[in-house]
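Researcher: I'd like a candidate sequence for this fold, 716 residues long. If you have to choose between options at a position, lean toward the conservative one.
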């Protein structure tokens, strides 16, 4: 018979690290919550018939977040042969809170106290024997990272499968135990004995999902309600608070009897945190770090390599070599044009930015894995909270700097529906890796490689998220209290070279893969529609690109963008192709500006581009494309997460209108300030700014909690 070992534990306790060690797989390990939303399965190394399941990280078994539902449904319905409960040994109180709930489930359980290495370093001594006796199940200390104690944990898990825990009985106060016993007696005596206690606790907390699952009649519900109310009156609190209070008390006693803590000194981590999370320094440091990351990756180091790759490699060497081959092979002129002016110019333009992308991923990887990004989430939560937003939205944004699709999916960790929707709408405002080539291209072609362009784009994204958040929160659609955000700050660690290299390579390589597939196809298509057109009554190759099919499409819609300062068909067409994949903007500009004298100097494409736009109009194109509707893949993710067409259309519409307004204001007010141009659009831009300020500072729509509790009118 095969055995399933379910790994359960708090977010960030090391489940995935252990899962990888046990199964030899390479799931993403991250030190912020929400990285594992769905469960993952694998086989125990050397035991083909033992399955290991990595459940999402949870703090409790209440049904309040999607992770909790996934984990608890799996445990209750699938009944794995054994639960391996991973406990972060450096944070026993919070972690054991879940442990007590798992044991109450009555399934065979082994508790693995993880992070033994850190415990030992701190000088704390943990008495696993006492813990095991009090919990009524085997307890073992391990380090998932250093792979110590893992074999012992596996051995214990295999031995324990089929042996339910002795159970946690009679640890709570008399009044509570009395109520639980009554509930068991009244409605649960037909259920398996192991799980009765858990059901009783769930029912005591008025968990309607459980009442439904057990098929209780309304008389039964009324009956146990009397027991619950009696206990509530006796202890003068509501049932959920009673339960969690007594549980914490019990866990507190458990910890103080089994952990002999060494006297605490401020660790280096704590000292760094005193500065980094300081009330006044936190934000400036965050801005400095991000600016530094983008500066190094995009400007100094990155630009140096990218210049060479763009100017010499893709600018001269590749085109020369390819045109040499094409001549030698004597291919048709149209095909040689397609390959040189289409594929080499377009895909080459995108691939030219590969070094910068890799560098940026490596830099972001370092900032993440050393633990700083966890602090950023913490810092931004405090800022966000003050303006009614939740720091939970930051994790999707962080993931979104790689790619918007997983970023949008990570919004699932937000329980509050309104907050979750808002995060789905705003996550793609942050520049993903596909938008970096656009930023780098404009920085190079128009802004003389100014260092501030990339950080400015990043902070424009953050500002768009905050402003949208505040504006949306004040509307009836999104009004809600910001979700509380609990996370531990992991100690700072030196990034591990291997893991860093792997994650950089994986993220960077998917960028290259995209260039070889979707971008390649797009540039071929763009080359065709920019080379063919209606001339002399038929479809044929056109001399002048202005007569091409592409130009006529661009010319038809360009009027929308005239007020934004870039009503020329090339930029409009590039923006449209950006909906397929954002790198296409660069590819399209490469095709459209790459025709002609490319062989002379590599810089030709960017020089032509630079001559076509002013700084203001280029910034307007950039801002519009950073904020407008994302690529189709991300739109698909938004559609899936919204589970509803209306919300999907609202999201896409909001993003596009917002982007249009912001670009308009930038351009029109910029023209006014720099060139003194004042027209009807300047007035409209001023009106939009005024409207924005009003929306930001007006009194918002508030949710009345007391009404929700009474089950009357939810919003008032
Ligand atoms: P999960 O959220 O439970 O899946 O946790 P992860 O496996 O993603 O690990 C969270 C963080 O804890 C990562 O940075 C790991 O490298 C780190 N970690 C995991 N196990 C250990 C351990 O035994 N010792 C130390 N020092 N760090 C660990
Ligand atoms: Mg995980």
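Model: Candidate sequence:
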């Amino acid at each position: 018979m095969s055995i399933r070992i379910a790994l359960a534990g708090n977010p960030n306790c090391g489940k995935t690290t252990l899962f990888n060690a046990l199964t030899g797989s390479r799931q993403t390990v991250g030190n912020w919550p929400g990285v594992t939303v769905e469960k993952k399965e694998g086989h125990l190394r050397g035991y083909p018939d033992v399955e290991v399941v990595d459940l999402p990280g949870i703090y409790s078994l209440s049904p309040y977040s999607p992770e909790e539902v996934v984990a608890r449904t799996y445990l209750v319905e699938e009944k794995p042969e054994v639960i391996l409960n991973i406990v972060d040994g450096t944070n026993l109180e919070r972690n054991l809170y879940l442990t007590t709930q798992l044991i109450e489930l009555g399934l065979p359980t082994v508790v693995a106290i993880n992070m033994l290495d850190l415990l030992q370093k701190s000088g704390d001594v943990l008495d696993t024997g006492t813990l095991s006796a009090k919990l009524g199940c085997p307890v073992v200390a391990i380090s998932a990272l250093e792979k110590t104690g893992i074999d012992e944990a596996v051995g214990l898990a295999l031995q324990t499968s089929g042996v339910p825990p002795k159970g946690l009985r009679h640890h709570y106060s008399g009044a509570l135990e009395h109520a639980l016993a009554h509930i068991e007696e009244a409605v649960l005596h037909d259920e398996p004995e192991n799980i009765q206690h858990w059901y009783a606790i769930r029912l005591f907390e008025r968990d309607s999902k459980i009442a439904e699952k057990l098929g209780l009649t309304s008389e039964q519900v009324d009956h146990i309600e009397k027991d619950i109310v009696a206990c509530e009156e006796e202890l003068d609190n509501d049932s959920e608070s009673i339960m969690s209070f007594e549980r914490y008390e019990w866990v507190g006693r458990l910890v103080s009897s089994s952990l002999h803590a060494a006297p605490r000194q401020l660790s280096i981590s704590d000292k760094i945190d005193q500065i980094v999370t300081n009330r006044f320094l936190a934000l400036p440091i965050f801005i400095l770090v991000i600016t530094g990351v983008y500066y190094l990756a995009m400007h100094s180091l990155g630009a140096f390599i990218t210049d060479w790759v763009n100017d010499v490699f893709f600018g001269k060497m590749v085109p020369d070599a390819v045109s040499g081959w094409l001549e030698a092979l004597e291919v048709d002129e149209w095909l040689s044009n397609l390959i040189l002016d289409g594929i080499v110019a377009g895909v080459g333009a995108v691939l030219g930015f590969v070094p910068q992308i890799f560098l940026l991923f490596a830099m972001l990887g370092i900032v993440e894995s050393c633990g700083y990004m966890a602090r950023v989430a913490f810092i931004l939560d405090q800022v966000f909270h003050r303006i009614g937003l939740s720091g939970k939205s930051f994790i999707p944004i962080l993931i979104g700097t790689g790619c918007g699709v997983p970023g949008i999916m990570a919004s699932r960790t937000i329980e509050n529906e309104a907050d979750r929707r808002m995060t789905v709408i705003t996550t793609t405002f942050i520049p993903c890796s596909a938008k970096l080539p656009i930023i780098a291209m404009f920085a190079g072609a128009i802004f003389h490689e100014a260092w501030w362009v990339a950080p400015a784009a990043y902070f424009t994204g953050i500002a768009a998220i905050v402003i949208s958040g505040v504006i949306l929160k004040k509307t009836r659609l999104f009004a809600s209290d910001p979700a509380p955000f609990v996370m531990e700050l992991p100690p700072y660690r030196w990034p591990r070279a291997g893991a860093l290299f792997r994650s950089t390579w994986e993220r960077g390589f998917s960028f290259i893969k995209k260039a070889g597939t979707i971008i390649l196809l797009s540039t071929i298509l763009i080359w065709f529609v920019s080379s063919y057109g209606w001339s002399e009554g038929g479809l044929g190759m056109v001399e002048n690109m202005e007569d091409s099919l592409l130009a006529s499409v661009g010319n038809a819609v360009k009027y929308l963008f005239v007020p934004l300062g870039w009503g020329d068909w090339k930029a409009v067409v590039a923006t449209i192709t950006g909906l397929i994949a954002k790198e296409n903007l660069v590819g399209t500009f490469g095709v459209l500006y790459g025709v002609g004298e490319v062989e002379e100097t590599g810089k030709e494409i960017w020089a032509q581009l630079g001559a076509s736009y002013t700084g203001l109009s280029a910034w307007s194109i950039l801002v519009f494309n950073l904020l407008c509707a994302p690529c189709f893949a991300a739109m698909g993710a938004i559609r899936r997460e919204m589970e509803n067409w209306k919300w999907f259309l609202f999201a896409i519409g909001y993003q596009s209108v917002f982007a249009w307004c912001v670009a308009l204001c930038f351009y029109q007010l910029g023209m006014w300030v720099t060139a003194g141009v004042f027209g009807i659009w300047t007035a409209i831009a001023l009106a939009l700014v005024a409207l924005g300020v009003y929306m930001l500072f007006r009194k918002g729509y508030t949710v009345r909690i007391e009404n929700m509790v009474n089950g009357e009118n939810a919003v008032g």
